[in-house]
Amino acid sequence: VLMANVVLRITRAMGYKLMDRTLLALRVVKFKDSEHGLDIQRVWSSSFTDPDDYWAALDTDVAADTTILFSFKADLPLEAFPAPFWSIRSYTIMPLLDFDGEVLNATQPHYPWPGRTRLQGGTNDGAFPDFLLVGPIPFTVEPQLQTPGAYTEITFVFSILQEVSAVVELSVRLEVKGPEGFVFLDKCFGSPFNPAFTKCTGYRNTATLVTIQPRLRGAGIVVILLAYNPRITPQPNYWSTAVFTDDPNQYVRYSSQLSYEIIGMPVLFKGNNQLGESASGFFTFSPVRPSPSPL
């Protein structure tokens, strides 16, 4: 049971910035007007400019086994921190006592409750996990050929500046998905082989890369993948990359990037347009890239 006047203390996960005076009671809970905000007086926090804690005083009792719902605003972190947990604790502000233990004042003063003892009651022991923050994985795509239907090498360059790591699994999975029409080879690694990965498995327009170690980090990670181009430029025409750690269905990094156009070689035919006439015809080709030899 949480009694009226009990103070709730919410400690942010690392990287968040709490917003003052943004508390909103949503279900089965009511807070005292003007009795909530950031811990700017540093009752618990170490900084008054960017406190770790938000406090709020209950206006009514909350029965045991009751689910309450409230919200407040916060700026999200610029990067995903390891072990992101929120803590919630409850405190009773004790009466003011004299040296003999007699109650001098039983009313509850305003924050920061000067001269009063704060008796901790309930706590979640920091066992409330943060929601997942998905970071970006910037990448570039450079094909060897843009010819329709051509077998080609595609060079991908990734950047994962903040390490991602698996706790349960023995590897990290990097999934590269192309527009409809691209077809990766079953064994899709090209040369030179990137030693950070143990294998690449292609299936239709998706290539799955598995790391040797249960972590992945680096700037300019280069992998060359083998695939067939589609016959025409797909619509929509985007590549996407995603990194998975312990949960096979939830990525922890994700980005998308515009793909390249499929460019065929322009051909012009000229000939006799008379019906039944036997004549020569001429094809004029316009190469899309230089010839590999002078002949």
Shape: elongated
- Global Rg: 31 Å
Distance between the termini: 89 Å
Average pLDDT reading? 89
Number of helices: 0
Major sheet: 6 strands, antiparallel
Helix proportion range: under 10%
Main structural class: mainly beta
Number of strands: 23
Identify low-pLDDT runs. Answer: none
Q: What are the secondary-structure elements, in order, as H or E? A: EEEEEEEEEEEEEEEEEEEEEEE
Residue share in β-strands = over 45%
How would you describe the overall organization of this protein?
The chain is an all-beta fold. It has no helices and 23 strands. Strands 1, 4, 5, 8, 11 and 12 form a 6-stranded antiparallel β-sheet that branches. It has a 5-stranded antiparallel β-sheet with strand order 17-18-15-20-21, with no helix packed on it. Strand 13 and strand 14 form a beta hairpin. The mean pLDDT is 89.
Question: How would you concisely characterize the structure shown here?
Answer:
The chain has no helices and 23 strands. It has strands spanning 7-11, 17-18, 24-27, 31-38, 53-58, 69-71, 74-75, 85-93, 96-97, 103-105, 118-123, 128-129, 139-143, 151-165, 173-177, 183-189, 197-203, 206-211, 215-228, 238-244, 251-258, 267-271, 281-285.
Chart the SSEs and their pairings.
Elements: E1 7-11, E2 17-18, E3 24-27, E4 31-38, E5 53-58, E6 69-71, E7 74-75, E8 85-93, E9 96-97, E10 103-105, E11 118-123, E12 128-129, E13 139-143, E14 151-165, E15 173-177, E16 183-189, E17 197-203, E18 206-211, E19 215-228, E20 238-244, E21 251-258, E22 267-271, E23 281-285
Antiparallel strand pairs: 1-5, 1-8, 2-7, 3-6, 4-5, 8-11, 8-12, 9-10, 13-14, 14-19, 15-18, 15-20, 16-19, 17-18, 20-21, 22-23
